[in-house]
Amino acid sequence: MKAVILAAGVGSRLRPLTNEIPKALVKVQGKPILEYQISNYLNAGLKQKDIYIVVGYKKELIENYLKNKYPKINIIYNDEYEHTNNMYSLYLALKELAVSSNEDIIMNNGDCIYEFNIINRLVKSQETDVIVCDKSVYFEESMKIKVENDRVTKISKQIPKEEAYAVSIDLYKFSFESIIKLKKIIEDYLKKDKNKWTEEAIQILLNQTIIKPFEITGLKWIEIDNYEDLLNAEKLFSNFTLSSKKALILDLDGTVYLGNTPIKSAVDFINKNWNNFKFYFMTNNTSKSKDDYVKKLKNIGIKNVSNENIVTPIDSLIDFLKKENINKIFCLGTKDFKMELIKEGIQCIEYYKPKEIDAVVVGFDTELMYEKLKIACLLLQHKHIRYFATHTDKVCPTEEGFIPDIGSILSLIKTATGREPEKTFGKPNPELIKPILSKFDNDEIAIIGDRLYTDKKLADNLDIDFILVLSGETKIEDVQNEMKFPKLILKNLGELGELK
User: Fold this and answer.
1) Which of 189, 219, 455, 477 has a Cα at 20 to 30 A from 486?
2) Cα dihedral 150→151→154→158 (10° resolution)
3) 42 to each of 38, 105, 119, how far by Cα in Å?
4) R_g (Cα) of the chain, nearest Å
5) Contact 104, 18 (CB under 8 A)
6) What secondary structure letter does DSSP report for 332?
7) Residue 389 and residue 361 in contact, taking contact as beta carbons nearer than 8 Å
8) Contacts for 287-295 with beta carbons within 8 Å, 24 or more apart?
9) Taking the alpha carbons of 283, 405, 472, 263 in that order, is the dihedral positive or negative?
């Protein structure tokens, strides 16, 4: 048995993601689409030499991927991919297979993911000449099949729902005899037009050969054409289970709200599940006090929240300053931030007094004035003065767009002084959620946020499940370069409540 994977296309509906990589190498749950297909075929009993992949767009990237991981797989080149369609790609494969093979052939498009049981059942089945299909769904964009007397009589996107037997999942198995017929049909098509879909040729084959439906209803599969499909694939093939969690640690800005605008679906999810989980609201934003955050969350509709639900770097900072006997600081921060420190016995000196000051502490200063920045930089030119920051976020998401966060301020200070903070206390420092870790096991916790370099990194540092929401800073294409993927990627927190 042989397998043919058609992976020559551009994947234009996944741009800008596919500006850099071919669609077959787009990752889902950290693994390229192509790897799902290849590993399934190999686990079902095929050898690398039994697999043929037709490449075109950015072919060198797929070549390098196969060379490093699956060096014995056969590569066929469609150098006309820009003005042909998958029928021509299949023809190039069948030309080679018709000479070298006398076996059944399975073929599929390179933009589909199938769970292993689908491929395994198809490979192990004695049936040939089948179209694999799913009776449980109907998609306007997908090929549908019509069946009469257990024989497929029509395949087309235009079959109405009332006439459709099932949706084709772009996976076919044909006997060698049928392949020879299909090759001849395709040759006749290509004399007139190379820009055709394979299913047009299969429709003619239906009149010459008995082809049956091969049902996989209830098993997981997806065709990935656009960003919506990609997000659905992330959910479909994730093994995250919400029911296993006891505590949810939520980032605030970009996850629960944007600036002063609540993300309604997130608020609804929190209120609906308040008694099902212990909720913690985690923020690196030290421009406000815990009381301010409680007030803000109540104002957007989360009525049961209290100070015990709020996690900020201020607590970790104060604990550290006390342990280090650092009592006098110059504070680059808001009035609220300074008051939190003063309440705990930390003296905030307002002027340039290098002999009296132990450290410069920088928070997210939304009241920043040049004079304060000037004093901080002058103080940091004294080596005995220590330097700390609450966090390192580069930008802060708002309903109007991104604004400079503390990371931008720290960059200014580094440019002027050459110094970087010796310690930060917010995400991704695990110390931030140390009190929570004493109450729950790591596998009982999920961290949910919109940033990879703070929220996800914190979760990775602790080996805690991370859920990325795309309601804030991160875009889905940003995730592709991550060595470890989020456990789940959602448009917003509200989607978590829709999972089964």
Assistant:
1) 219
2) 20
3) 6, 15, 10
4) 29
5) no
6) E
7) yes
8) 287/333, 287/334, 287/336, 287/337, 287/363, 287/364, 287/365, 287/366, 287/367, 288/334, 288/336, 288/337, 289/314, 289/336, 289/337, 289/339, 289/340, 290/314, 290/340, 292/336, 293/252
9) positive
Of 442, 487, 484, 495, the residue nearest 468 (C-alpha): 487
Q: Are 249 and 437 in contact (CB under 8 A)?
A: no
Q: What is the DSSP code (8-state) at residue 184?
A: H
CATH 3.40.50.1000 domain position(s) in the chain:
242-312+428-498, 313-424
In whole angstroms, what is the distance from residue 304 CA to residue 319 CA? Answer: 27
pLDDT tens digits for range 338-352 = 998 999 999 999 899
* Cα torsion through 61, 11, 111, 27, rounded to 10: 60
What is the rounded distance in angstroms from the CA atom of residue 291 to the CA atom of residue 427? 20
CA distance 269 to 493: 7
Contact 16, 61 (CB under 8 A): no
Q: What is the mean pLDDT of the segment spanning 39-45? A: 97
Q: With H, G, I as helix, E, B as strand and everything else as coil, classify residue 490.
A: strand
Could you read off the pLDDT of 289-337 as tens digits, one per residue? 889 999 999 999 999 999 999 999 998 899 999 999 999 999 999 998 9
Q: Tokens for 476, please give them.
A: 């889905």
CATH of domain 2-233: 3.90.550.10
* Paired tokens of 68: 């490093």
What is the average per-residue pLDDT within 203-231?
94
Note the helical H segments in 135-226.
Answer: 176-190, 198-205
Helix (H) or strand (E) holding 421: none
State the Cα angle at 136 between 134 and 141, rounded to 5°.
Answer: 70
Q: Let me know if domain 242-312+428-498 sits in CATH 3.40.50.1000.
A: yes
- pLDDT at residue 322 in the model: 93
pLDDT at 101 over 80: no
CATH number of 313-424: 3.40.50.1000
pLDDT classification of 381: cutoffs 50, 70, 90: very high
